[in-house]
């Protein structure tokens, strides 16, 4: 009986541990995806000429803010 009780306690601890690991893993993937959106947006806008940016109504100083908004909704 003691082995079963010990085993079920261990199973419960392992289940909680797995759950925490999966949550952290999913959070990491989400953060990486958002960071990629930020990097790509920032890079693409930075590569435009001042004239192209002006045609879009974007100033060079607002590129960082726009990239943050695209990635994180800030």
| Strands, count | 0
- Average of pLDDT: 90
Taking the alpha carbons of the first and last residues, their distance comes to: 55 Å
Topology as H/E string?
HHH
Instruction: Kindly report the oligomeric state of this protein.
Output: single chain
The major beta sheet can be summarized as: none
Number of helices: 3
- Unreliably modeled segments: none
Q: Level of helix content?
A: over 70%
Strand content: under 5%
What structural category characterises the helix and strand content?
mainly alpha
**Rg value:** 23 Å
Shape: rod-shaped
Tally of discrete structural domains: 1
The gist of it:
The chain has 74 residues and is mainly alpha-helical.
What features would you describe in this structure?
It is a single chain. The protein is mainly α and 74 residues long. It has one domain. It is 85% helix and 0% strand. Helix 1 packs antiparallel against helix 3. It starts with a helix and ends with a helix. The mean pLDDT is 90.
């Amino acid at each position: 009986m003691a082995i079963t009780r010990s085993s079920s306690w261990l199973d419960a601890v392992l289940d909680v541990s797995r759950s925490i690991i999966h949550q952290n893993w999913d959070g990491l993937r989400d953060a990486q995806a958002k960071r990629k959106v930020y990097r790509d947006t920032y890079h693409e806008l930075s590569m435009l000429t001042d004239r192209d940016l002006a045609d879009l109504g974007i100033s060079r100083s607002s590129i960082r803010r726009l990239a943050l908004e695209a990635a994180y909704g800030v």
